[in-house]
Amino acid sequence: xxxxxxxxxxxxxxxxxSFAPASSALPFPRPSTGALQKSTRRKKFFVPAAAAVxxxxxxxxxxxxxxxxxxxxxxxxxxxxxxxxxxxAASEEDLRRAEAAAKELESIGGTVDLTRDLxxxxxxxxxxxxxxFSSRTLGGSRPGPPTGRLIPLTxxxxxQRIDIFNKDFDxxxxxxxxxxxxxxxxxxxxxxxxxxxxxxxxxxxxxFVNTTIKPTGxxxxxxxxxxxRLPDSLRPPSNTRxxxxxxxxxxxxxxxxxxxxxxxxxxxxx
Length: 270
Known about the structure:
Order of helices and strands: HHHHHHEEEEEEEEE
Helix content: 10-25%
């Protein structure tokens, strides 16, 4: 956030000469240099921008560069979700704080139009927060297994790899499974491959293709396992293997999405 311009300290201290004419017949004592410096420091602190920060309200100064305002709100969002283990350690208060910060950034970013800005989706994105993870499951509209409860599963980093040219949309999840002592834990990377389709101007529909599991760490020499998509005739009617979400903010390094159950997700480019 850009700071408000203040007059140089020399001009403030220069006012001392106006209170000190050659004649000593003054109706009040001349202020000391130390008092003036303390007053100057107080003026620098109690500027409107600082007061707004203390009130946690966005400062929309007409003279402020919009890019500075966006950068400030992005920093506020990142600060709100930091230290929450992607949402797994989030409390209700943490969720409210993240939601409020996301809405501020969405508001200043305006309406997303992927028909015009589709290239902004291109790349590998790292998930830094999901409100669905606060339920202590793998989250989403189809909750996965509880983490660390029924099975000794540890969720690692989560990425989305988007290729707008080939319409590929891959969810990449790092997993660690506990094993009996003295065996080392099983580490693996699961890649859930999808095809993407733009719906309207800001919604994305993804359709599942297959899942690939590649052992890593101590078991990296094992071959990867591919789990193909079941034929339509064999899949239950409720298992559509597709999902839809809305992109509510996107730029070159930050993306906010809202899931089909209202989940808030925050990504940064990796």
